[in-house]
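Quick one:
INPUT:
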């Protein structure tokens, strides 16, 4: 019979052999998830003979096997924390990343007023829109995505995390919007922005398991920024603002696109790691 420590160690060894960088931590998360044992409980019982249920042991071993094949830990566990909230995730959306919190925090800092209308374009898991609704308390938040499967995930997250509903739209960018009726104070977006030929160089967890449609920004990575810069003004109120997450080397190009299409006061904001992360601008027709 194995001890709890031996069960955990066997999982760690399998992940180490598979080349998982954070094999100790990943194995622990899978252990905790399968057996429901907290850190404190583990330290008290680690040398005791383990008597897990057959179902829990099977869940742990299958989780280790999936992670060893480079499936993201978040997909196996089914959740990822973002802005202090726990989001459901699966293969139909990007996994929320800490870098994206820079965009949310910037909007929250710039817009303290509650009576505004906000749109999250390319919402994916809904992490941006929902976090802004929760932490900003904004009265009207909408979110759109071309993927019906992604919208199912976003709607599930909204149902769990929000008291007041968000309006979700199935839309290819602004295809389902009316410029005469749909006017927003703020439009945010984390669109696909990785150049096509770079995707094959990404870690297997990203390249093989996250939706390519949410990653691929075509040849130069700027396709969706060009579309957004061209279209957003039609759906913004006067002096409305845009906030786009960008790749670390895209700040100047995206600012130029916004200025070309009539946006003022453009600027690029860095994330906590010191990389360019968000470009913002203000819509002004006069």
């Amino acid at each position: 019979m194995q001890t709890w420590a031996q069960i955990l160690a066997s999982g760690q060894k399998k992940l180490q052999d598979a080349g998982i960088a954070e094999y100790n931590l990943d194995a622990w998360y899978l252990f905790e998830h399968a057996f429901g044992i907290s850190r404190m409980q583990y330290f008290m019982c680690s040398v005791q003979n383990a008597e897990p249920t057959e179902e829990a042991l099977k869940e742990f071993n299958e989780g280790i096997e999936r992670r060893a094949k480079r499936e993201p830990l978040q997909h196996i566990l089914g959740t990822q924390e973002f802005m202090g909230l726990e989001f459901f995730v699966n293969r139909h959306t990007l996994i929320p990343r800490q870098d994206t919190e820079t965009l949310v925090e910037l909007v929250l800092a710039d817009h303290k007023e509650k009576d505004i209308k906000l749109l999250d374009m390319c919402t994916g898991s809904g992490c941006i829109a929902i976090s802004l609704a929760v932490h900003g308390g904004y009265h009207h938040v909408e979110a759109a995505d071309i993927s019906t499967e992604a919208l199912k995930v976003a709607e599930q997250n909204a149902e769990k995390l929000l008291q007041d509903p968000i309006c979700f739209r199935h839309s290819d960018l602004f295809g389902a919007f009316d410029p005469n009726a749909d006017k927003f104070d703020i439009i945010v977006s984390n669109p696909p922005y990785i150049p096509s030929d770079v995707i094959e160089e990404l870690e297997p967890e990203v390249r093989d398991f996250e939706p390519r449609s949410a990653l691929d920004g075509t040849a130069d990575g700027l396709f969706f920024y060009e579309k957004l810069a061209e279209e957003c003004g039609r759906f913004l109120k006067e002096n409305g603002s845009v906030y786009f997450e960008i790749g670390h080397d895209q700040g100047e190009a995206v600012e130029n696109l916004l200025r070309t299409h009539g946006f003022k006061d453009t600027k690029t904001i860095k994330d906590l790691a010191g990389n360019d992360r968000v470009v913002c601008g203000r819509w002004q027709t006069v």
